[in-house]
Amino acid sequence: MTQSRRSQTRRGPDPERYHEIVGAAAEIFRQKGYSATSIQDIADAVGILKGSLYHYVRSKEDFLYTIIKDATEAALREIQTVARMEAGAVHRLVAFVHAHVRFATGHLTAYSIRLREMRRLSPDRRGKIRADGEAYNKVMQDILVQGQEQGVFDAGMDVELMTTILLGQLNAVTRWYREGGPYTPEQLADVFAGTVLSAVVSDRGLGGEGIEELRRRVLTISAGKAAART
Amino acid sequence: MTQSRRSQTRRGPDPERYHEIVGAAAEIFRQKGYSATSIQDIADAVGILKGSLYHYVRSKEDFLYTIIKDATEAALREIQTVARMEAGAVHRLVAFVHAHVRFATGHLTAYSIRLREMRRLSPDRRGKIRADGEAYNKVMQDILVQGQEQGVFDAGMDVELMTTILLGQLNAVTRWYREGGPYTPEQLADVFAGTVLSAVVSDRGLGGEGIEELRRRVLTISAGKAAART
Amino acid sequence: MTQSRRSQTRRGPDPERYHEIVGAAAEIFRQKGYSATSIQDIADAVGILKGSLYHYVRSKEDFLYTIIKDATEAALREIQTVARMEAGAVHRLVAFVHAHVRFATGHLTAYSIRLREMRRLSPDRRGKIRADGEAYNKVMQDILVQGQEQGVFDAGMDVELMTTILLGQLNAVTRWYREGGPYTPEQLADVFAGTVLSAVVSDRGLGGEGIEELRRRVLTISAGKAAART
Amino acid sequence: MTQSRRSQTRRGPDPERYHEIVGAAAEIFRQKGYSATSIQDIADAVGILKGSLYHYVRSKEDFLYTIIKDATEAALREIQTVARMEAGAVHRLVAFVHAHVRFATGHLTAYSIRLREMRRLSPDRRGKIRADGEAYNKVMQDILVQGQEQGVFDAGMDVELMTTILLGQLNAVTRWYREGGPYTPEQLADVFAGTVLSAVVSDRGLGGEGIEELRRRVLTISAGKAAART
DNA sequence: AATGAATGAGTTTTCATTCAT
DNA sequence: AATGAATGAAAACTCATTCAT
Questions:
Q1: Helix (H/G/I), strand (E/B), else coil: B86
Q2: Among A63, B209, C5, C25, which residue's Cβ finds the most Cβ atoms within 10 Å?
Q3: Cβ-Cβ contacts under 8 Å, D47 against chain A
Q4: Residue to test with chain C: of D212, D214, D218, most C Cβ within 10 A
Q5: Is residue B63 in some structural domain?
Q6: Model confidence, pTM
């Protein structure tokens, strides 16, 4: 695994310390960017000499890989619950948005890095992560297709393009969301659920109600979700 | 303006050469990121020794500043035509989306850098650009307010938040758009116009028609725009 | 070629300086060994900052490669005159020993490095040099075969093994020869010519004279060589 | 002796483990060279953490010192049997060559290191070993003198120089000999005995026979040695 | 005996920048 | 306008060694 230098060198002990160090690295990567962060910066944050970091990691890139890999896997794990959800497309899309916003804001540091710094990884390592990333997108794409089949989403939309656009919209939240800011993740998710649903819904999906009613309905669904989840 | 800035740095001839060099720098900044790009990389791309670059620029950051400043000013200049446009909010929002997508894709390199590398600028220089950036956002915000006043946009929406979300959505296009790809900028703008309008429209804005009809209407408007422009 | 960093970076100027620096590196490599020599050591010897060395070379190994490659090629060039020599095997073997000792002592630094540090080169670069090294050995081997065919060298000897042994003997001179020491290169070559000839000569090669006479004869040949050369 | 040295460093048990570790170090020193070998390399080979090596040794140099010291002492011990041998110079020189080749090939790793890495030892420690090294050389030198006195070796030869040359020749075997290669140590020793004897023999030493007969005689002597030894 | 964390000094290499020519 | 040499600081990484457990 990533956290062992040579298999003889580390076998188990103090994964907490390792976690702490990776966490510190992540925080700095997010603030300054990966390329602009030096090993010295990380060492300073941990209160250790820079050479000592190589106890935990074989290269600076290892930090990045660990952070991105863990974030990607965790994100996929979260979204799988939506993928497995038995419900109509509208409900599932709302759930997707909520799960996504919750994860992105709840793991803001790691997820931001995942979005911005993937290019810094070696092609090899990027490749290992790509599959998970695609599986993630696939979840949304499947929901859009389901909605088209059910007639509740616009039959004319280009599902692949729309997936890209909507995920782009959702991911952009990492650029400005800050904990303790004016909106809670749930509030943001509610708004996003509205914009996302509005973007794909069909006339039949609106079901005679107006679009404002749709937005209100989305809130009820979210509330249900939140309730269900408590 | 580039011209004026440069005249401080150098009197000598060949502004074309200067343009060429800044263009080369921009291309590499976009590909590798500012921090990961070395002066040597730029020199190699131009076929010059790295020391010679300092005839055109006083520091590496100067390249970045020129690129971002020019892109920001040009973007604002483009969007001002929309700001000054006398029309209903729906028409103007469609026009905004089109202008934005056209610019972002047409100046992909510079605009991507503007979005991703602003943090690398000194606070001083970042400050000089921020005003233009905010003016840009203000244009969309004003349109949303106008739409609310006209009753065609959802009265309940948080205009500031929605501006952030929608611009985030539009800017994300720079992450995946490539010239010669499957969609033309105009096609993309049409789709974006649909998602953006759907996100903000009110029941009265829908005007009794369904949401699918709204999306179709947006296309007509775009076509008008395109026609007007030809 | 080796001495240029990027083709744009160095085109010609001051090969003298480059030579001087490589020479300094060679001297230190011989004294301390390649692995134990730091770039700092070289920089100190040249009176330059260590970073500045990378103006001339892309890596520490580049120094080693240049030194070994040049030494190997020069040695081969020298020995080719013996290879092309039209004469009996005895004369040619004496000439070989003289050329070899002259080169090894005359290029003591570079040739010592060539013998001791080849392993530090990347397999790739080692491969590029190996051919020249083998061509060198081949020259002696051919002379031994010629001598066997002429009947002047022992028909029973294993030519390949004897080549290895005799070259090993000759190369060992680099371990203890020092300029200004008690023996001149020519004196050493005379002694070596005796040991080498004695090792391979056949009874017919001795031609009825004793072995001491052979050793004396070898001196005459050398003297002729030396004379011819003056 | 190893045993005694070690007892200063550690009281504890398991001298076998110590031997194993020093052996592993030696093997790596020979392959990569002392300077290029890290403590980590040795630890990896033994399957231990590098810090743990300091239970056996006080410094990296200790490994080298132990290896070289043991090899030098053992070599001297072996050659002493030849030094004490009561026989003619020719017989004793043949015996020397055999003992030397047998030792060098039989302790290839340690003896190679002894030859190549002596310079890495501190002057102090090098000094402690030098005496043994010189005693070793002295054995051959004495034989050459004995041969001159007996008239069987060339009276005109420079004994000191010849000792250096012939030992250089013999030691070079460590550069290419590999166990399981095409020649057994005994076969090599036979060939070396021929070249060494030929290099020093006088006309009277040849005793009217030709030089080829000398080489054959040398084989008989070796055979006798081998027989005597079985 | 061994671990695993850490040190501190060192390694090779990179890089933005300067400057005489 | 450009070169090529050099600077000086910092980068990533290595390594012998120490030490509490």
A1: coil
A2: C25
A3: 8
A4: D212
A5: no
A6: 0.91
